[in-house]
Amino acid sequence: MKVGVSQDPLTSAVRLAIAGNAIDLGPENAVALEDLRQTIFQTFSEPLYGNLEGFRRSVAAAGCILYLADNAGEIVFDRLLIERLPMERITLAVRGHPVINDATMADAEAAGLHRLVTVIDNGSDAPGTMPDDCSTEFREVFEKADIIIAKGQGNYETLSDVPEKMFFLLKVKCPVIASRVALNTGAHAILPSGF
User: Fold this and answer.
1) CATH topology of domain 3-192
2) φ, ψ for residue 11 (rounded to 5)?
3) What is the pTM of this model?
């Protein structure tokens, strides 16, 4: 699937970013190429829950966008979405130190993202994003952002109660989060804060 030739490139890129989150199996597991293909194709037939149109409007209106990366492997899928957003307004944040399989500066550079957008690390080695545990530089960008795009369930778990203008892109992977967001386990979602 080529994002640029789809009828709605932004929607396709959002779906692929969520597909990247869907293939995360943890630090010690490998993903077979065929499983990856199946996950990507399945992503386009899955319902997409949440508020895609609200996301589209918020991105268009935002002067400053903070994109919180999740895992190392899926950062390549994040690039597909970042390329469909106003890149000159984006700061990408990765983990400050390796933790589990989370994306770091080295992963952002391997994906070429440092050539597209400003990339910072959050100064933390915690899974998810806990602003109080992050660097001053990260907190300043976090506070000034008009919209925050947070990838993955870990970011949802740590930030879902933060009253910022935030959209979570994730695959719902456990019953606890499924119950909290009133979706089935396995659902693909783009959830605004407060959902």
Assistant:
1) Rossmann fold (3.40.50)
2) -60, -45
3) 0.92
